[in-house]
Amino acid sequence: QVQLVESGGGLVQPGGSLRLSCEASGSIFSIYNMAWYRQAPGKQRELVAIITSGGSINSADSVLGRFTISRDNAKNTAYLQMNLLKPEDTAVYYCNAEHPHSGYSYWGQGTQVTVSS
Asked: 105: how many CB neighbours lie within 10 A of its CB?
């Protein structure tokens, strides 16, 4: 079992920055692939970025050059640094942990990010 708690969401103006954190507990954090997803009102949940247990990273085209995913295995925490935020980035952001062998997946409760002037 893995428990995930996201934090760091909020209201920010266009062009601003936020850093989301996802703290994990209950299992060996370092073996999991960690990802951030988001879901805007009326839209499907979409992958934002993923960092594997080995440190490989993939990001959605829409956030390339603006968002950076990272992890600190010593702190059992994954991060999403979001810069140059746009109104279309407004969504609930979810942290996900996926076991690389079983494929079993865990989700956090989500944190709201609103980009508006």
From this structure: 13
Written as tens digits, the pLDDT of the chain (117 aa) is 899 999 999 999 999 999 999 999 987 898 999 999 999 999 999 999 999 999 999 999 999 999 999 999 999 999 999 999 999 999 999 999 999 898 899 999 999 999 999
Cβ neighbours around 54 below 10 Å, total? 8
Beta-bridge mates of residue 98:
33, 105
| Beta strand segments in 1-117, E | 3-7, 10-12, 18-25, 33-39, 46-51, 57-59, 67-72, 77-82, 91-98, 105-107, 111-115
